[in-house]
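#struct-help
A.M.: can someone run this one for me? Single chain, 286 residues.
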Amino acid sequence: MGNSASLMNQLMNNQISGGIVSSICFAAISSIYLLLLQHMRNSGLRALIPSSDSDVAVVCPGQPAQPGGAKAASMTTDEAMALAEVLQCAAALNKRPWVLSSADKPRHAGIISLGGEVYNSFTAASLSAFCPGLRIQPPRGQDRDTVIRLGSTQIRPKEDESVAFIIRLSSSMTGCQGPVLLIFGEYGSDTCAAACYLRKNANRLYHDFWGDSFAVKLVTRPQFGHQGFPDRHEDISAAVFRENLRSRKRRLLAWIYGLKRNRRPGRPPLPFPHPLPSTESHDRAA
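D.P.: on it. Structure tokens below:
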């Protein structure tokens, strides 16, 4: 009887120990799988978001200097929402963001610049220096519309159909230590739409351009608010940079990725049931 009881105790102890070991192994394997899955999901963001070690520098719009006064930070509600989207990208990469005004004259290795050239002097300088095919003329005199010249095309954004841009300037193009990412549009809501698109479609942008410099155009509908955010982009790199930067290898990789993506069922178009009321930020060009 004593030997039988001892044998039963030993079997039970072995089962308990085995269960504990199995649970530990399962937890370890699950943790590794989740880490790998998160790493794969963020691979696009990691390739597109400019950073220096653990830092991400974000340049926000600044108010133009008044006579006898200095520049001051000035952001609309929609531009603040765009900043929140970028901060989510930094958090997903465990990066520490540094939020600056364009009046601060940033000197960082890699920079994300929010807002167009009217209110962000850093964006204006970058467009002037590296994007000869994209020119933005703000309203002047009797012409109350902004005119965007994209190559030989002329665009006049309206609240029912506007445009936003995401432009990545690699360090090889700028000659700086790190790349520059420009996120802007005609209205503040356009800038928010572009930042949201970057966060949700970073992998798509990465597989389309494989870390090279690129420029994409997004068609937005500001009067519909978030329902007017785009679900696709148009490659305008050749028109913006006035040259085709796509290497043969990159074209082949983008083509292969495009075949895989086209096999998946497409998403239905975004619904626009009811127009949302216009906000103050709609009246301001970003």
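A.M.: thanks! The chain has nine helices and twelve strands.
D.P.: also worth noting: Residues 2-41 form the longest helix (40 residues).
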